[in-house]
Write a structure and sequence with these properties.
426 residues, EreA/ChaN-like  fold, 2 domains, 9-stranded mixed β-sheet, 15 helices, 11 strands, disordered C terminus, Emycin_Estase, Erythromycin esterase family protein, UCP036794_erythomycin, Hydrolase/PRTase-associated
Length: 426
Amino acid sequence: MGQKPFQYTALTKEKDLDVLLQEIGDARVVMLGEASHGTSEYYTWRTAISRRLIQEKGFNFIAVEGDWPECYAVNRLIKGYPNAGGKIAEVLEVYRRWPTWMWANWEVAALVELLREHNNQRNQGEKVGFYGLDVYSLWESLEQIVRYLESNDGQAAEAARLAINCFEPFNRDPQTYARATAFVPTNCEHEVIEMLQKVQQQRSFSNDPEQDFNTKQNALVAANAEKYYRAMINGSSNSWNVRDSHMMETLDRLLELHGPDSKAIVWEHNTHIGDARYTDMADNGMHNIGQLAREKYGRNNVRLVGFGTYQGTVIAGKAWGAPMQKMDVPPATSGSWEEMLHNISTDDKIILSKDLKHVPEVQDYIGHRAIGVVYDPKYEMFGNYVPSIIPERYDAFIYFDETEGVHPLRMKSRGAKEPDLYPWNY
């Protein structure tokens, strides 16, 4: 165990988060990261932080790296809308797109239960929301638009049907669409833009306070998804930028929906929330939602919190669409940010960036672990470390010396008990 070259707070109980809450202060947007999409501790501690932000600082909603239609179903459940379902685990079955374990897991079920209990004690306008920021749900969003508009706005519904018909030859597969249109001028861009304009022009039909917003958001998702999938096939940074720009646009719309004094919590991977200008992503012309939020709202109004681990296990797949499995996460590579934190002490810890100002090792780029939904521990050293200037990329960092994989609903053994995810006392 080495020297302690900078100040940190050991993280053992929920009260230890006080130092982070103090650092967050009056920020309007708090982004909570993760170094993988399959680590239990990231979910459970983000839940603990989010609970305190909601109860102590009046945050209005959580927006996550998930698809809009599925997350909106969860939003309706936690707010007690009619016909929204009753059993949390059943509602989370809406997450059918691979990787299902990201949101259909027991850690998220615990978060949903917490939010539902919080909302049960409040009037409709005071209830906390749960929304998806992502752009993948092209077909699902189109279908939701048509179903809603068929009984409300014939002109907009017809535009949505034309958009769906344009995509029909591609077997409901956006990637097939992208490949088919890569080298020919024919695509469905005109149809989705026309639909978006028609939907945005429609008058309000519903007494449901969020239904019109939901319809317009699905139209925006469809338009940006079409753009994303076409950009993706070219293999350039443009598809990444389309996706993160959409997430930022959705965050803006949600803040506007909730009013001028609203506050947002964002859950996404470190690669999205950690300011891209202080990584090698910038060299490739890429931006992300953390950077865009700082630029729009000002650095004092945005707090970016990274998460990471030294070793443990994770849920991931060996290839895109492959079966999920629990994999070992080996000790962090030599010279990395995670190894530095491990060598300081094996404590789980909270590090504030302002306490790193006099640590020369982190004033320049240092390798920082990032595990995606596709992972193979054997090749980790060749592509799982993002060069980062840590104290600029984040405002704070939460480190775990050893972590375990998330607990997917679909991997639950018959008769097994739900995992004990929150050992601390609230």
